[in-house]
UniProtKB/TrEMBL annotation:
GO molecular-function term, one example from the UniProt record: NAD+ binding
Residue ranges of every copy of the Deacetylase sirtuin-type domain listed in the record: 23-292
Gene3D superfamilies: SIR2/SIRT2 'Small Domain, TPP-binding domain
Protein name: NAD-dependent protein deacylase
Positions of substrate binding: Y92, R95
CDD domains: SIRT5_Af1_CobB (cd01412)
Any one of the GO CC terms: nucleus
Cellular compartments annotated: Mitochondrion
Family: Belongs to the sirtuin family. Class III subfamily.
Role according to the record: NAD-dependent lysine demalonylase, desuccinylase and deglutarylase that specifically removes malonyl, succinyl and glutaryl groups on target proteins. Has weak NAD-dependent protein deacetylase activity; however this activity may not be physiologically relevant in vivo.
Length: 292
């Protein structure tokens, strides 16, 4: 899908949603929310880039969402990879290195501890749009990674998906990926980029990530929708709620009567759909919300 069409859809969504935010009244009554959480049997936590912001990983929208002169969303497309696999691999090499050095923060840890404590009494599912692996590193077990993972590759020829934690992922990317806006172009020959090692294949590898205009893995999507369809409570944490299909999950749950609480540093186009809004860095608000 072309970028201008995506931008115009997004603008329409924003324009349609913000007047409702101003007119609506979300509760920020933490004790009341915690009471509701206590009696919930099925809990979903839907996270986005904001939960990793306090670990030093840039979010997509806003000031940090640029790498060189590019908006991240312009590089996370099949078209960008076709045009310059070298540039896209540099971008992902940089992101792999940043995420590998980052540590889970109190938000990730609060979620993992909550699951460890209540995961036998309740069904607790974490659905993340993030690809940085920090939920797993914090100890979360029941996790659905909607948009893939920075440390998985997929062969463009045989489609094999493999975990790959190599740093750098190939020799040619050593010292590459600098985010500096003055760096122009990318000239790594395709043959020097990561390739499939399967006998008789040798196809070019790509990050196992869902790019714009690509369908989510149907099995992953089914799992996420099943959890969303039956949860009593959903915590929506650090997402701008503008990227579909994830953006529709929590509003749909709220519409069928599930209690939905948003944790964000600022309102989003979906805030008015929800019962609770807890403003502030989720590294602070989540530990409070999930503690006894
Ligand atoms: C804090 C904080 C702190 C900061 N504490 N909070 C239906 C309607 C309209 C459009 C579409 C539609 N269906 C599909 C589309 C097209 C497209 C889309 O949604 N476009 C929109 C932009 C309009 N969707 C797709 O293409 C999806 N595919 C699909 O649906 O296929 C079928 C189809 C295709 C085409 C047409 C129709 C149907 C695929 C989406 C894949 C998204 N991929 C990305 C890139 C991954 C690659 C990578 O990481 O490199 O995933 S995009 C990017 O956005 C990334 C994120 O996971 C995703 C969501 O972003 P997120 O997490 O919300 O981050 P931010 O930065 O936006 O927000 C951060 C938030 O945190 C902010 O609110 C801050 O305030 C907050 N925050 N610090 C708490 N400390
Ligand atoms: Zn292959």
């Amino acid at each position: 899908m072309c970028i201008s069409l995506i931008s115009s859809i997004r603008r329409t969504i924003l324009i349609c949603s913000f007047p409702r935010i101003m007119a609506s009244r979300q509760s920020s009554d933490m004790p009341k929310f915690k009471e509701a959480l206590k009696s919930a049997k099925e809990v979903v936590i839907l996270s986005g880039a904001g939960i990793s912001a306090e670990s030093g990983i840039p979010t997509f929208r806003g000031a940090g969402g640029f790498w060189r002169k590019y908006q991240a969303a312009n590089l996370a497309t099949p078209g960008a990879f076709r045009t310059s696999p070298s540039l896209v691999w540099e971008f992902y090499h940089y992101r792999r290195e940043v995420a590998a050095k980052a540590q889970p923060n109190p938000g990730h840890i609060a979620i993992a501890q909550y699951e460890a404590k209540y995961g036998t009494d309740k069904t607790i599912t974490v659905i993340t749009q993030n690809v940085d692996g920090l939920h797993v590193r914090a100890g979360t077990k029941n996790l659905i990674e909607l948009h893939g993972n920075l440390y998985k590759t997929r062969c463009t020829k045989c489609k094999e998906v493999l975990v790959n934690n190599d740093s750098p992922i190939c020799e040619a990317l050593e010292g590459r990926g600098a985010p500096d806006a003055t760096v122009v172009g990318s000239d790594i020959p395709v043959k020097s980029l990561p390739h499939c090692k399967k006998t008789g294949c040798g196809g070019l590898l790509r990050p196992h990530i869902v790019w714009f205009g690509e369908n989510l893995d149907p099995a992953v999507m089914d799992k996420a929708q099943a959890a969303m369809a039956t949860c009593d409570i959903c915590l929506v944490v650090g997402t701008s709620s503008v990227v579909y299909p994830a953006a529709m999950f929590a509003p749909q749950a709220a519409a069928r009567g599930a209690i939905v609480a948003e944790f964000n540093i600022e309102p989003t186009p979906a805030t008015s759909d929800f019962h609770y809004y807890f403003e502030g860095p989720c590294g602070t608000t989540l530990p409070e919300a999930l503690a006894d």
